[in-house]
Write a structure and sequence with these properties.
With 287 residues, the chain is α+β, with helices and mostly antiparallel strands. It has 2 domains: 3-77, no CATH class; 89-283, no CATH class. It contains 11 helices and 6 strands. The chain has helices spanning 3-18, 25-38, 55-77, 89-97, 106-124, 130-144, 162-168, 173-186, 225-234, 249-266, 270-283; strands at 148-149, 170-171, 191-194, 201-207, 210-215, 221-223. The strands form 2 sheets. It has a 4-stranded antiparallel beta sheet. A two-stranded parallel sheet has the order 1-2. Helix 4 (89-97) packs parallel to helix 10, helix 5 (106-124) packs across helix 8 (173-186) and helix 10 runs antiparallel to helix 11 (270-283). The longest helix has 23 residues, at 55-77. It is elongated and about 70 Å long.
């Protein structure tokens, strides 16, 4: 595309955005369809802080959400499928993050994850005891890198998106666990996600039948099977041994999306709730 064409499109997009407060319904319908036709290219021109009110802001948020709905669904369909039928977790979490942070560059975060993996590998290189390996791993994330649970603002939008969790070093149980999983994958660390009802923890498996559970949200606290059972019951659920089985990458992504739905429902954002439900349907469409 020539510079002249780019300038022309930019000028049109700015003009279309400026017309979003036109009270003539026919004008708005025409402007809306034209903006939608640009797809993701229009997103850079739609700036609507959540606290901003008024007709234009409401309409722009609607258009933005429709564009994102289509674009993210397409990207979800394109997430790499693994030989076992699962999906690639790293690619998946960054696709989901684009719903809130469209312009993020996953490459920058992948580089950071690779750096963490190299540093952790160096930290563990002299460790021979399996129990010490887990202790050092937890210390690396919690004490050295500062990752921990966001208790002050648990339902913050940022807690659900991997880029912001990596930026701020705080998050909810599942997104903090994803950081551990992605770094651990880079050095073949035997950890897996465990989706307890109401909470998400990790399982370290140094050998056949050897399982140690730990909680990234609570400073990596070591958990016994009895601790996990008590946690589940305290959250109001009946316990089942099935809850201690590892979950798939696809299940992790779906759970992140369901957590986002809970957050949006608290804000009474019904249209976005429907959008995220469509993301879940798309994620599972090939099952």
């Amino acid at each position: 595309m020539s510079q002249r064409t780019e300038d022309k499109e930019a000028a049109e997009l700015r003009s279309l955005v400026a017309l979003m407060d036109d009270e003539d319904g026919m004008v708005y319908a025409t402007v809306r369809e034209r903006l939608l036709s640009y797809g993701p290219a229009a997103l850079g021109y739609i700036h609507t802080p959540e606290e901003q009110t008024g007709l234009a802001a409401q309409r722009l948020r609607e258009v933005r959400d429709l564009i994102l709905r289509s674009a993210i669904k397409e990207q979800i369909r394109g997430i790499k499928r693994l030989p076992n039928g699962d999906v690639d977790l790293e690619e998946g979490v960054f696709v989901l993050a684009r719903y809130r942070y469209w312009d993020i560059d996953p490459v920058l975060y992948t580089e950071q994850l690779n750096t963490y993996a190299a540093e952790l590998k160096g930290t563990l290189s002299s460790v021979t005891e399996k129990s010490e390996l887990l202790r050092r791993t937890i210390a690396f994330f919690v004490e050295e890198k500062g990752f921990n649970g966001n208790r002050e603002d648990y339902f913050s939008d940022e807690n659900h998106h991997i880029n912001r969790v990596m930026d701020t070093k705080i998050g909810i149980p599942i997104t903090l666990s994803v950081v551990y999983l992605l770094v651990g994958k880079g050095i073949n660390l035997p950890i897996q996600g465990i989706g307890l009802p109401g909470h998400f923890v990790l399982r370290y498996t140094p050998g056949p039948g050897q399982h140690v559970y730990f909680d990234p949200f609570n400073s990596g606290r070591i958990l016994s099977t009895a601790d996990c059972e008590e946690m589940v019951r305290n959250l109001g659920f009946n316990f089942s041994d099935e809850y201690l089985q590892p979950v798939s990458n696809r299940q992790i992504l779906e759970r992140i999306l369901r957590n986002i739905i809970v957050m949006l429902e608290k804000r009474q954002e019904k249209e976005r709730v429907e959008t995220v439900r469509q993301f879940i349907d798309t994620l599972n469409s090939d099952l």
